[in-house]
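Attaching the record inline, Q. Sequence:
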Amino acid sequence: MELKELIKNIVSDDHIHARFLNTLSLQENIGARKISANELPETSTYMVLKHAAEEHRHAFYLKKQIGKLSSTDCPTYEPDYLLAPYSSKYYLNKLDMSTSRYLMDHLRLKGAKLKFAAYLLVTYAIEVRADLIYPVYQEILNNSGSKVSVRSIILEEQGHLEEMTAQLKIFSPDWEFHASNIISIEKNLYQGWIDALAVAIRKEHQFS
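Structure, as predicted:
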């Protein structure tokens, strides 16, 4: 199922839509917690602190958007309140692990340098993906007359992408080569997530 068709199916059903928002909120929250867990207090920069704060805010903002839908309640990130919970939860974790393995194998990085390089490349790949998903989502929200909006997230994610690009240029003259390899890994994980969402939505329609 293509992204536009998938999101149209999601937005057309408030119950499914609420769980999709909750799922996106979970992913933003996982990203924020990963940034915080990997940073070293002694060397935390303005950029890293800002990024972690904005990802936490995105998680909160998406959670709050659920209240704009009718008769929905997703109080926690427990599986019953998510779409494709396993794939949604481990998408970012798998990308992080694969990126770290790539950096160890190809650049022989370890310790703090490994953590920071993985942060840059994982974030870059995720922001490239977000730059594709959120505008499509917003377009469908507009066309359906939904009260839900992700405009503010779109602007901040674009800013994150610019920041990561600037930092990657400093990290390595071959950053585009390495980033393209990580994006290839992300593409496979993303397709698995989209396929899992499509299966979950079909099941919801069967039993509704």
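The chain has a mean pLDDT of 92. Residues 134 and 154 are 6 Å apart (CA to CA).

More tomorrow.
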